[in-house]
Amino acid sequence: MEVSEAIRGRRSIRRFKADPVPKEVLEKILDLAQWAPSAMNGQDWRFIVVLGPEKEKLLKITGSAFESFRPILEANFRDKPRVVEAAKTFLETMGGAPVVILAYGGRFPSGEEDPHSVSLAVQNLLLAAHDAGLGAVWADAAVFYREKEINALMGMEGRKLVCLIPVGYPDEAPKAPPRKEGRVRWVGF
Ligand SMILES: Cc1cc2nc3c(=O)[nH]c(=O)nc-3n(C[C@H](O)[C@H](O)[C@H](O)COP(=O)(O)O)c2cc1C
């Protein structure tokens, strides 16, 4: 797949088939993720790939985030109860994805948190997943409300969880949300 085709064709996928994803395919997308640029080439990211009973425990935690998220959702989607219901289902199931990948940032040499390098690696991962026929999405609502609990389950300390990435074969083909105009200013042309 051409890079431009992958970039334009990738969509955030929130509903997955139950079919398992072969480990070699997961290894490939995680390898490609790590070819991202990183601050001072630190490559100071961590990914945790979660499957099976541990994933079920993780879903209990993400599902419990809904009650904290509910007031914001209800305020923003007052006339769209289906959006609120869909968010609940998504948090409880991660769209039925067979695998959930957790992406953690690291630190700059100064000791400051570096959320950027891991984010670039996640974008690589999303594109590589699309190229492999998989779907995925950057999901972070559960991070806002249950980061501590997720880290405790994973035994992770001292790193910022930037997102959860449910991964699986897509069970939906969403339309591309149109891109907005006027986000680029040209100087000196
Ligand atoms: C920082 C960030 C946070 C996001 N958080 C969520 C989320 O919690 N749940 C979700 O379903 N999608 C989430 N998304 C996905 C966006 O909703 C999605 O990228 C956007 O609607 C554009 O759709 P597309 O990815 O198909 O082009 C997030 C994306 C980014 C970059």
Overall outline: globular
Ligand inventory: flavin mononucleotide
Helix-strand makeup class:
alpha+beta
Strand sequence of the main sheet, in spatial order?
A: 1-2-6-5
Provide a count of the helices.
6
By CATH, the topology is NADH Oxidase
Q: Can you identify the CATH superfamily?
A: NADH Oxidase
Percent of residues in helices: 40-55%
Q: Helix and strand string, N-terminal first? A: HHEHHEEEHEHE
Whole-Å distance between the termini? Answer: 33 Å
CATH class: Alpha Beta
Primary descriptors:
13% strand, binds flavin mononucleotide, alpha+beta, NADH Oxidase, 189 residues, 6 helices, two-stranded antiparallel sheet
Give structural notes.
With 189 residues, this protein is an alpha+beta fold. It has a single domain, classed as NADH Oxidase, CATH 3.40.109.10. The chain contains six helices and six strands. The protein has helices spanning 3-9, 23-33, 52-76, 81-93, 116-131, 141-154, and strands at residues 46-50, 99-104, 106-107, 113-114, 135-136, 161-168. The strands form two sheets. Strands 1-2-6-5 form a four-stranded antiparallel beta sheet, with helices on both faces. Flavin mononucleotide binds at residues 11-12, 14, 137-141, 177.
Secondary structure layout plus pairing:
Elements: H1 3-9, H2 23-33, E1 46-50, H3 52-76, H4 81-93, E2 99-104, E3 106-107, E4 113-114, H5 116-131, E5 135-136, H6 141-154, E6 161-168
Helix pairs in contact: 2-5, 3-4, 3-6
The structure holds flavin mononucleotide.
